[in-house]
Structures are given as C-alpha cells and as structure tokens.
Amino acid sequence: MSIYLVKRLLHLIPTLIGVTLFAFLLVAAVPGDPAQIIAGESASEEEVQIIRDQLGIDKPLYQQYISYVTNIFKGDLGTSLRSSKPVLDEILLRFPTTLILTVMSLVVMIIVGLIAGIASATKPNSIRDNVSMMISLFGISMPVFWMGIMFILLFSYYLPWFPSGGSSEFKHFVLPSLVLGLSASGILARLTRSSILEIVNQDFVRTARAKGVKEKYVIYKHTLKNALIPIITIVGMEFGVLLGGAVITETVFSMNGIGRYVVESIQFRDFPAIQGSILFISTIFVLVILLVDLSYSIVDPRIRYEN
C-alpha cells in the first residue's frame, strides 16, 4: 500500500503541473495588456507599469511561469490587487465557510440520493420508482442559482424560517446546503438504483434469499455493500462539483466563502486572486480523488494494490 501511495502521489505531479499551467495561462491569454485592463483606461503609463511590475508580466512568458511555480512552492500565491493582502491568507480566511457548505451539501446528497436510489431499486418500474426518478431528474435539470432563488423566496420570504444570506451561524448554511445537496442527489440516486439492480440478480443475493434472510438485510448487507464502489466514486467526483457549485451558491446566499471571493475577484479583475483560488480548489479536488481511490480496498477487501 505504501509503495502504491507513493506511485499515486507521483502521478499527481503532472496533474498539478497542468493546473498551474492553466491558472498561469488564464492571465497570459487575456486579450490586450492585463495591466492596462486592471488599471483602467484613464490610468497613466507609470501606474500601468507599477501593475506590470507587480504581476511580473514584463518578462518573457517562460520566465513568468518559472517564477509563478517557484512562488507556489514557497507558499506564495501572489498578492491581491484589490486588498493588497496575500492571496493565500484571503483564501484560508474563507475556506472554512466553503468547506462547511460542501460537507453539509455532501451529507444531504448522500442521504437523499441513497434513500431515493434504494427505494427505486427495491420496487423497479413501480410508481415509487417512477416518482423517485422523476424527482431526481428534476434535481439534475434545475440550475443551482434558480433553486437558490426559489428556496430564498419560499423559506426566507413567505416562510421566514431561515435567513436568506450570511455565513456566521449554522442556520445560514441550511438553505444553501439543501440547494447544493438536492441538486447533486439526483445523479447519486440514479447511480445507486442502477448499481443495486445490477447486483440484486447475482447468485449470492439469490442464495441469501433462498436461506430466508430478511429482505432488508439482503438489500443493506449484501446488495448495497457490493454496490458501493461506483457510489463512492461518484461521491468523490461530486465533492469537486459541489466545490464548483459553491461559486454560484455562495454568491446567491451572500456567503463569505471562496466561491464568492472568486466572483468578486473576476468583477474587480483581480487576476492573482483568481489564479490562487483555481489552484487551491483544484489541489483539494485532486487530493480527494486520491483518498477515494485508496478507500476502495477498505470497502471491498477483494481489491488489492500491487507494489
């Protein structure tokens, strides 16, 4: 396992290099002079040159990239042009909000998705199955920002149960986590249904039923346990989707997280903040996928990692 882990960590290096290259080219690919765009049309040449020096864009492109990667290894993601503070400090200040929102949304997704998927799989082609799949399709199809606005209108305006914005208390996370979790639960529900239906007709399940094992034990102990690999995979993938969805959700609900920080940085053309946020979120997502990969052997002992 230890050798396999080292190999997987080495395999992450090209991925992270690609992420740094994408974040770097984000500024390099901006049409025109980024310094002039940031400074504005009325800025003097001296002011534009100061911004060029701050961004380091007056050097050749390869030197800019080497300098950018070198600073990353030093823990320096640059300085925000808007606040004049280190980008990493700004991100770490907002990361707990985004992490709490993502984890709560993931919990909602798992609970709703598994219940809907199991309910559909145990009674295939029934009314319960059709209703569950229709609801899951609705969750997949509806834009997150639209669901957020509808939830605010219903549960904050007509039924003033929860606040419509903020991130200082637990109650501020209820509506946004429901919006994100419910929108993602549809995919999990459909995958759970298909995975269970694939397992439920195998020999060991029929044997368990022939021995008189109660149906709930057949489903939860035998069938669901063997269907967990694709479910765990989609949960790990959805973690990254939820991090990305937080960009919209945090803006709709006025939460002080990384997502809203990215939107504000785009509005103010704060390129170092955009670069740093993309790199930070992408790195977390890559590490989560690694943990998901390593968890397979825990869920299914038949899986062994060769050295």
UniProtKB/TrEMBL annotation:
Keywords: Cell membrane, Ion transport, Membrane, Nickel, Nickel transport, Transmembrane, Transmembrane helix, Transport. It is a multi-pass membrane protein. It is found in: Cell membrane. Residues 95-296 form the ABC transmembrane type-1 domain. GO terms for molecular function: nickel cation transmembrane transporter activity. Its main location: membrane. GO terms for cellular component: plasma membrane. PROSITE patterns: ABC_TM1. InterPro entries: BPD_transp_1_N, MetI-like, MetI-like_sf, Opp2B. Pfam families: BPD_transp_1 (PF00528), BPD_transp_1_N (PF19300). The chain crosses the membrane at residues 12-30, 99-121, 133-158, 170-189, 227-248, 278-299. The complex is composed of two ATP-binding proteins (NikD and NikE), two transmembrane proteins (NikB and NikC) and a solute-binding protein (NikA). PANTHER family: DIPEPTIDE TRANSPORT SYSTEM PERMEASE PROTEIN DPPB-RELATED. Belongs to the binding-protein-dependent transport system permease family. OppBC subfamily. This is Nickel import system permease protein NikB.
